[in-house]
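Justification of computing resources. Each target in the renewal requires a structure prediction run like the one illustrated here; the chain below, 203 residues long, is used simply to show the kind of job we budget for.
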Amino acid sequence: MPVQLEVEERRRTAILDAAGRLIAERGYHAVRIADIARLVGTSTGAVHYYFPGKNDVLTAALSHTVDRAFERQSAELTRIDDAHQRLLKLIDMQLPTVGRVRDEWSVWMQFWAEATIHPELRPVHNRFYARWQETVARIVLRGQRQGVFRADADVDGVTRRLTALTDGVAIQVLTGAPGMTVTVMRELLVDVVRQELIAPPTR
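Resulting structure tokens:
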């Protein structure tokens, strides 16, 4: 990549990282271009050079944040051969603990809200959601090939239930629902894996 293009790509990425961080902290509609520029250490004009309007940068930041999360998860999961352990690792990586993952969940929840109101965002949202479900489905199929998951498990059904439960309990954790903690969330998800994918021991 030519040096100038590389520099511009780094600047664009820095802007998106800053916008994503601010969205997570303050909410989609509370972020201003001036806030993003200040965090990056540049001017509002520089932000507008890459993104003409506020909605352009904020929408791009939503996609950028989700893309980064998928890339990190993929890199971690490919290091684990056993499908059962890989699925447990994926569950652990979805837990909204304090820090990066919690920020990503905050951004993702706001993406849901924006896609509810703005139909033009739904194709992007649905692409990300399909990617999330495909990740789970591939691990389940891998486990069936390896013999660590039940061969008769309904891959599509398990995938839909596990992803839906992950999203639902994460929302409860992030909104402070009584009795719902990260620990409880993990126990619920691991229990689904055990009940639906692990064959009972033979006598």
